[in-house]
Amino acid sequence: MIFIPTDHLKAGMALAMDIDIGIGKLPLLTKGQVLTPGFIQRIQDLNITGVYIESSQFEDVVVKETVSRKLKQEALTNIKKIFENYSRKTLVADVSLRTVSELANSLVENILSNEEIVVNLSDLKDHDDYTYSHSLSVAILSIMIGSHLGFGKRLLSDLACSALLHDLGKMRIDIKILNKQDKLTEEEFSAMKKHPVIAYEHLKKSKILPSSVLAGVESHHERFDGSGYPKGLGGDEIPLFARILAVADVYDAITSNRAYRKAWFANEAIEYMMANAEIQFDYDILKAFLKSVAVYPVGTFVKLSNGQTALIVKNQPGNTLRPVIRIIRDDGTCTEDIDLLSNFNYISITITGRCCDSHFFDLGTGSSDTRN
Ligand SMILES: [Fe+2]
Asked: How far does the centroid of ligand 1 lie from the alpha carbon of residue 283, in Å?
């Protein structure tokens, strides 16, 4: 399979993965579906960055799921139920918090059992139900970051719990403010800024959550340089869980499709995150994050510093800037797989960016339409 940016989709290409659009809903399109101009339009309307397409030439290139599809669906259904209950009642029931904790354990077990813990961008995304899929994505990213920081299972599970609950307070913010497409007024922004404290105050009444979980929820909008809220804490004053959640939260937000803007590609988002090291984010956490997230997801065409084009075949946990690649020659034929981490001949070759040359996107895809 290969990843094709939405602008380069053509009629006749077949989807290699379902396109999910929300909890309990059937996928918008399912694996194997041949694209028509109408389907391509629908994908564009949803602001989806790109999709995985079947390619006979790159059949062996496969994106592995970070968490199983079954667990993801189960998690989203539970998160939705808990968040919706909270929007109607004052407190979160202990039974709901136990469900969150069990969910956190299952996510940790599922992710740790996966040898290749590198998140591929599109694998996590649901294109609707933003709050719930965002909570799940932040939990998954946080577990990955925590595991690269050397956390044990107990700590990872608490971290995941904090991540699943971090934006619970948004259920008490006026929906008009949450969904506003224009810039928030000062008054609206100060209402929005209350969401971490609202959730913290309610959650701490339950007495079953560890203080580290509560601290993550309360401080996930604090920033390393002291410019965040609610308390304007800086550096190490910010609780560790909150420093991790801040990275996962911002990364997932900017790589998600929203009704009012298109998602950023992983490499663009990572560049933004790194530019904010020691400004918004803790550099040590960013280093662990960079080991966890694929800069260029499997199936992406990239440009190399020697001018050649290559396809990402495999990402390596801990070193996502040096993946296994396959160079594509101008006539469409390929080299053997090259491991950029260990192949001495390629030691000075780097990946310079995404390839936008449309003829590569047609390789083995059976597209029948020559329009972009
Ligand atoms: Fe938040």
From this structure: 20
In angstroms, what is the span from residue 177 Cα to ligand 1's centroid?
13
Mean pLDDT of the chain: 88
Contact 279, 177 (CB under 8 A): no
Separation between Cα atoms, residue 25 and residue 213, nearest integer Å: 31
Cα 47 to averaged position of ligand 1 atoms, centre (Å):
23
Q: The whole model's pTM is what?
A: 0.86
State in Å: Cα 243 to ligand 1 middle: 13
pLDDT in tens, 216-251: 999 999 999 999 999 999 999 999 999 999 999 999
Residue 370 has pLDDT above 50, yes or no: no
Instruction: Tell me the three state secondary structure of residue 310.
Output: strand
> How many Å lie between the centroid of ligand 1 and the Cα of residue 98?
22
pLDDT digits (tens, 9 = 90+) for 43-59: 888 778 888 999 989 99
Please tell me the distance between residue 112's alpha carbon and the centre of ligand 1 in angstroms.
26
Report CA(291)–ligand 1 centroid distance (Å).
24
CATH of segment(s) 69-292 = 1.10.3210.10
123 alpha carbon – ligand 1 mean position (Å) = 22
The tens digit of pLDDT for each residue in 136-181 reads 999 999 999 999 999 999 999 999 999 999 999 998 888 888 878 7
- Give the single-character DSSP code of 263: P
Give the distance (Å) from ligand 1 centre to CA of residue 219. Answer: 9
Q: Of 143, 135, 136, whose CA–CA distance to 117 is shortest?
A: 143
CA 257–ligand 1 middle distance (angstroms)? 17
pLDDT at residue 78 is higher than 70: yes
* Domain positions in the chain: 2-63+298-361, 69-292
Cα 136 to middle of ligand 1, angstroms: 13
Q: DSSP string of 118-160?
A: -B-HHHH--SS-HHHHHHHHHHHHHHHHHHHTT--HHHHHHHH
At how many degrees (to 10) do helices 240-254 and 266-275 cross?
A: 140
**Tokens 């560790």 -> residue:** 240
**Residues lying with their CB under 5 A of ligand 1, a single-atom ion:** 167
